[in-house]
Structures are given as structure tokens and as C-alpha cells.
């Protein structure tokens, strides 16, 4: 049986040889000067850019589980800052979604699944003893709107975030692509509350 990787590589060979990449050519700087943090949910792969009117090359898109900024000095925040300082992004959108797998996620069932897949208790102890709050790290959120608002706050208040960069929070419906604004940066529209 052919592995997923072999299928990907076979397709890629044809993709390159037949020059199917031509329509996707873009520069490294985002044309719309936008950086987006969103969820890794498969339903958003094409829906999110289409619902926002984005084409290849328009925005820097960062994805993780839940579109969450969990640490002010983690890789997500570093990526946002690099997009601003090195890649000329001028606005940030954090886009969560309804029906997110992180909503209501509890650590204990996830850890039980890890154990069922062969992760031994000693491995969990190593993580716990390294100072990581394993249960907190593997717990989701109750409200996507509150989660998005919290991430917006963390980004906006980051000590390395320039004050002239707008940071917005939105929630997308994964079936229709409808966007709801949770936080609209007041510097863009001072009348918005």
C-alpha cells in the first residue's frame, strides 16, 4: 500500500513538471499587509481565504489548534512579530471558528488517548517535572469569542508590538464562511465599541 507521503510526492512531481504552480506565484511580502492567526481546522483551508477575499500572496497565515496565542514568547507570537517587522504586515486578524475542537477540550481524555497509543506514564512525568502545566496546556476553551478576545489582548499588549498595528478578532462559521467581529481595533474605527 502506498503511503500518504508517496502519493504526495507523486502528485508533486506532476505538479512541478506540468508547471501547475504558475497561478500561485507570489512575493514573500503580503500584498494586503495582513497577518492572520487562525485554526488548523480542515474546513478552513480554502474557506477562510475565500471568505476574506484573499488570494495567494495577500496575507501571512499562521495556523494552530484553536487560533490561540498561549504564550507571549512562544512561536505564534514570534511569527506575528516577524510578519510585522520583517515582512511588512500592518494589521493582525485572529480568526477563531464555531464548532472548534478546542471548545470544551479536557486534558484527561486526551492524556488517556496518548496512553492508549503507547505513551508511558514515565513520559508524562518527564513533561510534568519539566515545569509544564500539562493539564492546563492540553485544555481548550469554553467560548470561542472569549478565546479570540484573550488572544487579541495578549497580542495587542505585547511589549514588542508596535502601537500603530491594528489587532482584530473574528469568528468564522466553518460551513458558510460568515465572519463575526469579536474585537475591532479602535485605532481603525474609534466609534466602534
Question: How would you explain this protein's 3D organization?
Answer:
- The chain has 193 residues and is α/β, with parallel strands linked by helices.
- Helices cover 36% and strands 16% of the residues.
- It contains seven helices and five strands.
- It has a five-stranded mixed beta sheet with strand order 2-1-3-4-5, sandwiched between helices.
- Strand 4 (166-172) and strand 5 form a beta hairpin.
- The termini are far apart.
- Its cofactor is Zn(2+).
End-to-end distance = 57 Å
Q: Could you say how many structural domains there are in total?
A: 2
Structural class: alpha/beta
**Helical content band:** 25-40%
DSSP strand content: 15-25%
Can you identify the CATH superfamily of the largest domain?
Answer: Carbonic anhydrase
- Low-pLDDT parts are none
Shape: globular
Whole-number radius of gyration? 19 Å
Mean pLDDT: 94
- Which strands sit side by side, in order, in the main sheet? 2-1-3-4-5
Number of strands: 5
For the structure shown, list the relevant keywords.
7 helices; lyase; alpha/beta; zinc; 36% helix; EC 4.2.1.1; metal-binding; Carbonic_anhydrase; Beta-carbonic Anhydrase, Chain A
SSE topology sketch:
Elements: H1 4-17, E1 34-39, H2 44-51, E2 59-64, H3 75-85, E3 91-97, H4 107-116, H5 121-129, H6 134-137, H7 144-156, E4 166-172, E5 179-183
Parallel strand pairs: 1-2, 1-3, 3-4
Antiparallel strand pairs: 4-5
InterPro entries: Carbonic_anhydrase, Carbonic_anhydrase_sf
Enzyme class: lyase
EC number: 4.2.1.1
Amino acid at each position: 500500500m502506498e503511503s500518504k507521503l508517496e502519493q504526495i510526492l507523486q502528485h508533486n512531481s506532476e505538479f512541478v513538471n506540468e508547471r501547475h504552480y504558475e497561478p500561485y506565484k507570489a512575493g514573500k511580502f503580503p500584498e494586503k499587509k495582513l497577518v492572520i492567526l487562525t485554526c488548523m481546522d480542515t474546513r478552513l483551508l480554502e474557506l477562510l481565504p475565500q471568505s476574506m477575499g484573499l488570494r495567494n500572496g495577500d496575507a501571512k497565515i499562521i495556523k494552530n489548534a484553536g487560533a490561540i496565542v498561549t504564550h507571549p514568547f512562544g512561536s505564534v507570537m514570534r511569527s506575528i512579530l516577524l510578519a510585522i517587522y520583517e515582512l511588512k504586515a500592518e494589521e493582525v486578524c485572529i480568526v477563531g471558528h464555531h464548532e472548534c475542537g478546542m471548545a470544551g477540550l479536557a486534558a484527561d481524555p486526551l492524556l488517556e488517548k496518548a496512553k492508549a497509543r503507547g505513551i508511558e506514564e514515565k513520559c508524562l512525568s518527564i513533561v510534568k517535572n519539566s515545569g509544564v502545566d500539562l493539564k492546563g496546556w492540553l485544555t481548550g476553551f469554553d467560548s470561542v469569542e472569549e478565546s479570540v478576545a484573550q488572544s487579541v489582548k495578549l497580542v495587542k499588549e505585547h511589549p514588542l508590538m508596535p502601537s500603530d498595528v491594528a489587532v482584530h478578532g473574528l469568528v468564522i462559521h466553518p460551513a458558510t464562511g460568515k465572519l463575526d467581529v469579536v474585537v475591532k481595533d479602535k485605532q481603525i474605527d474609534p466609534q466602534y465599541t
